[in-house]
């Protein structure tokens, strides 16, 4: 170890010895010559940001430890034109920069997104990802996988390799508890409350930046944020025309082809941008292929003090069903890819159209208007059309369950093919006014009104036996409607070194659905819910680059569609309430940027996961009176040398249900066995999640990144894997007897190099090796325990993730 440390220091000494130049100066604005605190000052070599700083309250900046060489100095600040200058640095220099206001208010659209975003001083915890961060790993995997290295995030993939149906949990909360907006417009499904990124394949290729807020966060539109919110902003204006080709290929027949093109600014007022993408894969799991298509078109008009933008984007997915997982016996036997969906007992073959098919198209009209120097307005009209079905083969189906009487009673039990359809419309408006009379005070008033209409209907496509049921026979239909209105008022006031923060939201929900009434009749009925969500906090500036913050926020969340339609008014779950307390410290500098955040999330009537799934893969939940999540999150990035950077984060938490009642059916006596668990673990909530990325740039525009992720064990239900007293578990194999996911540690390697060649402004080559050390691990699962023969039998199903696999990409920019 001593020799290793000595050798490492010796290797680093040449870098340290040459890094002695300092660049300093002041950033001011236009004719007024006012200081501009918070401007981003960066030195670039090619496309790589070598080192940088953020201007202080007096506008000054200082960048130290610069190696001699050629650089481009770039300074940016929202609402001002970017400043760039080529430099040949041989010794320390002083350069003062003056930024000019944007003549066409090109950044007005960012004001709209900022209405539901946290700023650098907002007293809540968040992570910002820019386009450069996202594109490094954008080789075909779904959006959750590109967010997987952020604090407290755990990603899952049904097909095992990150393409197709994927999911993300943040602080142990699944996708139904994570609010997602695109340009401030809600994306979560109104009924299930989940976000299905498979419906927008390759959306990241049209994204400029993303902010992830953990906990309740700031007021937003759409579904209640109980674990986190993901705020996505699509691509903004580019002044020069461009064409960009991205092609990726990798394991399991994975292919991705993307073309991006734009006109740049035409006549000082117009721009048009577009993207066309396709992704296909065979999947790691058997018969888990995916065929994905998408496009994105954006046209904008830039006026004096206003911007009008129309976005149209759409995605189509066809995926083979893999959401049931792999049974525990197959995993234990080493067959980690076995997918039994679609099995036909009659001839021992698989039905080859056991697929999910869905198309979703979004229309967004965004308008931004600067009314005066202190007041601006931003509004949006939106419409989303979704339609599709999943088709499945049902073995030995009883036609009585489908409300059908066959012409031949002897054929009442038959194999059949059915389709479950969803045809929905979602439309509405969002708005906000921002009042900013001076640098010490700002006020935002905003909200949204959205309406959802969804038709759920099911059809028997054909039967194997001659039953007299016509092909394409509709046997059920359920029409749902949901109105969602919210309004919020948020203010920030700088009082000396203190920033005082207050935020209050009112949300009203009307939901009409077909469900059981008190007499167990299936009738159309409705519920009305009203929520008030206050938030308050304070931030204290320790220095120009660091602060302490504390906040308290309340969130409410309604039950989802399954909770309503699978219950009566007497047994219907209650709405959930969350009190979220956050306390943190953050700092930003030229060498180290990071922070630490503590959280305590106290739930009332939380709907916790039981570990079971229904026949369409939806999680079954139950109300528990008291539960909580408490923990600490640490994240940081340190520039060890100009070539070597280390970014890491860790989340340690305790996630408990104070009083959980489990009911197991005992097949020995046909009775329910109730067990009460005290302070048991909340399902799918690891105690520790850690991420690391060690990035080394040995040559100009070249990078080697070693990426690691550790997730501690997770329980499949809320019993902490403890059986009822006196009843042992059946089986000796851990996969069969344990209701848990083992801890896993996975490492990836990314190699990247960019260069210019001929007509190409940039040629980028990337190789991503996932699961470098070929680890066998499982990221998700489900359990269906019961009691048989005096023992607890766990019918466990798992989602094994791919072993070593790779993706390689070629990027060409004209």
From TrEMBL:
Keywords associated with the record: Cell outer membrane, Ion transport, Iron, Iron transport, Membrane, Receptor, Signal, TonB box, Transmembrane, Transmembrane beta strand, Transport
Gene3D superfamilies to which the protein is assigned, alphabetical: Carboxypeptidase-like, regulatory domain (2.60.40.1120), TonB-dependent receptor, beta-barrel domain (2.40.170.20), TonB-dependent receptor, plug domain (2.170.130.10)
Subcellular location as annotated: Cell outer membrane
Gene Ontology molecular functions: siderophore uptake transmembrane transporter activity
Topology class, membrane: Multi-pass membrane protein
UniProt domain TonB-dependent receptor-like beta-barrel: residue ranges: 305-772
SUPFAM superfamilies reported in the protein's UniProt record: Carboxypeptidase regulatory domain-like, Porins
Residue ranges of every copy of the TonB-dependent receptor plug domain listed in the record: 120-228
One term under GO cellular component: cell outer membrane
Signal sequence, renumbered to the chain: 1-19
Keyword Signal: yes
Main localization, broad class: membrane
Family indicated by similarity: Belongs to the TonB-dependent receptor family.
Stated name of the protein: TonB-dependent receptor
Organism of provenance: Mucilaginibacter straminoryzae
Lineage of the organism: Bacteria, Pseudomonadati, Bacteroidota, Sphingobacteriia, Sphingobacteriales
């Amino acid at each position: 170890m001593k020799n290793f440390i000595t050798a490492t220091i010796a290797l680093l000494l040449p870098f340290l010895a040459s890094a002695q130049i300092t660049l300093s100066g002041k950033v001011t604005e236009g004719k007024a010559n006012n200081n501009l605190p918070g401007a981003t000052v960066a030195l670039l070599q090619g496309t790589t940001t070598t080192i940088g700083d953020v201007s202080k309250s007096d506008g000054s900046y200082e960048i130290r430890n610069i190696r001699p060489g050629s650089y481009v100095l770039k300074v940016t600040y929202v609402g001002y034109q970017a400043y760039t200058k080529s430099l040949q640095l041989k010794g320390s220099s002083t350069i003062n920069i003056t930024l000019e206001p944007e003549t066409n208010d090109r950044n007005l659209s960012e004001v709209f997104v900022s209405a539901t975003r946290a700023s650098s001083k907002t007293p809540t915890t968040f992570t910002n990802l820019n386009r450069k961060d996202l594109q490094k790993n954008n080789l075909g995997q779904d959006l959750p996988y590109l967010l997987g290295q952020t604090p407290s995030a755990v990603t899952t993939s049904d097909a095992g390799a990150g393409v197709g149906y994927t999911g993300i949990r943040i602080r142990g909360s699944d996708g139904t508890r994570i609010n997602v907006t695109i340009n401030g417009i809600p994306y979560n499904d109104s009924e299930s409350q989940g976000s299905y990124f498979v419906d927008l394949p390759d959306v990241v290729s049209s994204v400029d930046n993303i902010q992830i807020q953990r906990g309740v966060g700031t007021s937003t539109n759409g579904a209640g944020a109980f674990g986190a919110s993901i705020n996505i902003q699509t691509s903004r204006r580019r002044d020069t025309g461009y064409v960009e080709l991205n092609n990726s290929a990798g394991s399991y027949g994975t292919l991705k082809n993307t073309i991006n093109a734009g006109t740049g600014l035409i006549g000082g007022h117009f721009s048009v941008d577009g993207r066309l993408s396709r992704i296909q894969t065979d999947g790691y799991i058997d018969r888990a292929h995916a065929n994905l298509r998408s496009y994105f078109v954006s046209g904008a008009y830039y006026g004096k003090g206003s911007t009008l933008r129309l976005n149209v984007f759409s995605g189509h997915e066809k995926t083979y069903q893999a959401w049931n997982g792999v049974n525990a016996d197959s995993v234990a036997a080493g067959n980690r890819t076995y997918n039994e969906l679609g099995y036909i007992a009659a001839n021992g073959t698989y039905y080859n159209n056991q697929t999910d098919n869905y198309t979703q198209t979004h229309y967004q009209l965004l308008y931004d208007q600067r009314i005066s120097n202190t007041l601006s307005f931003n509004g949006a009209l939106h419409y989303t059309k979704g339609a599709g079905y999943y088709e499945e083969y049902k073995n030995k189906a009883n036609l009585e369950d489908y409300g059908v009487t066959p012409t031949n009673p002897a054929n009442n039990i038959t194999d059949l093919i059915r389709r479950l359809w969803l045809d929905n419309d979602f439309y509405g408006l969002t708005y906000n006014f921002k009042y900013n009379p001076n640098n010490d005070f700002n006020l935002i008033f905003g909200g949204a009104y959205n309406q959802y209409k969804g038709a759920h209907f099911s059809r028997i496509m054909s039967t194997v036996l001659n039953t007299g049921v016509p092909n394409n026979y509709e046997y059920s239909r359920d029409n749902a409607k949901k109105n969602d209105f919210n309004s919020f008022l948020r203010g920030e006031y700088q009082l000396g070194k203190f920033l005082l923060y207050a935020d209050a939201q009112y949300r009203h929900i009307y939901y009409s659905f077909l469900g059981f009434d008190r007499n167990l009749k299936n009738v159309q009925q409705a519920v009305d819910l009203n929520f008030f969500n206050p938030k308050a906090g304070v931030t204290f500036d320790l220095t120009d680059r660091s602060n302490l913050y504390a906040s308290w926020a309340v969130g409410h969340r309604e039950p989802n569609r399954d909770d309503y339609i699978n219950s009566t008014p007497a047994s219907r779950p209650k709405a959930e309430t969350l009190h979220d307390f956050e306390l943190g410290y953050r700092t930003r500098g030229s060498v180290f940027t990071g922070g630490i955040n503590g959280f305590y999330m106290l739930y009332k009537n939380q709907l916790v996961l039981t570990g079971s799934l229904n026949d369409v893969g939806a999680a079954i939940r139950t109300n528990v009176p008291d539960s909580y999540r408490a923990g600490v999150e640490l994240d940081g990035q340190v520039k060890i040398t100009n070539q070597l950077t280390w970014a890491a984060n860790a989340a340690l938490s305790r996630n408990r249900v104070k009083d959980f009642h489990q009911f197991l059916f005992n097949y020995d006596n046909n009775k329910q066995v109730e067990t009460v668990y005290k302070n048991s673990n909340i399902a799918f909530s690891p105690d520790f999640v850690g991420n690391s990325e060690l990035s080394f740039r040995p040559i100009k525009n070249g990078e080697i990144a070693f990426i690691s992720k550790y997730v501690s064990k997770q329980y499949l239900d809320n019993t902490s894997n403890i059986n009822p007293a006196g009843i042992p578990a059946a089986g000796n194999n851990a996969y069969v007897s344990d209701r848990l996911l083992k801890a896993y540690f996975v490492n990836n390697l990314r190699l990247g190099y960019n260069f210019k060649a001929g007509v190409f402004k940039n040629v980028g080559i990337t190789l991503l090796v996932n699961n470098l050390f070929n680890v066998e691990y499982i990221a998700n699962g489900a359990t269906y325990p019961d009691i048989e023969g005096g023992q607890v039998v766990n019918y466990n199903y798992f989602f094994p993730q791919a072993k070593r696999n790779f993706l390689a990409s070629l990027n060409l920019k004209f």
